[in-house]
Specification:
alpha+beta, TATA-Binding Protein, eight-stranded antiparallel beta sheet, 30% strand, globular
Length: 142
């Protein structure tokens, strides 16, 4: 993980407005959100070793929960992140403890867990991240 300085850190926005501004730029809300925090991810690159490099923009709810209409969020410090995924079959495929057959299970859980959730990041991505941050600042602060 590499932290990236930004003028958007600490700024508050309506989550819906923020999402409407970031989605056209290529950001998506990361799947690991909770009711009090989440993140927007921008996939920069799929590396050559089953890794994905993201610019992640974390946020936390300041006046309610994320699933509530009109909730405001505060932006945290953006950072570069790399996830490395394993090849082949998942080592832990039986996530439903045998309650559901593997055929049905695969319909719900198609993705393997990352081998390394915080993999090393090539420094070549830093200029790209800085450029993306400038775009975010222009979009959100003007």
């Amino acid at each position: 993980m590499i932290a990236v300085q930004s003028k958007i850190e600490g700024k508050q926005f309506n989550l819906k407005v923020l999402e409407d501004k970031l989605k056209p730029l290529g950001y998506s809300i990361g799947g690991g959100w909770e009711y009090d925090h989440g993140c927007f991810d921008y996939k920069i690159d799929q590396g050559d070793q089953q890794g994905y490099t993201f610019l992640r923009v974390p946020f936390r709810a300041v006046d309610g929960e994320l699933d509530q209409r009109g909730v405001s969020v505060e932006i945290g410090q953006p950072y570069l992140l790399n996830h490395k995924y394993q090849e082949g079959l998942d080592d832990n495929p039986d996530v439903f403890n045998g309650l559901i057959s593997m055929n049905i299970n695969s319909s719900f859980n198609q993705f393997t867990e990352p081998v390394e959730k915080d993999g090393s990041i090539d420094s070549k991505y830093i200029p790209t991240a800085q450029s993306l941050i400038q775009e975010l600042e222009m979009t959100l602060l003007s």
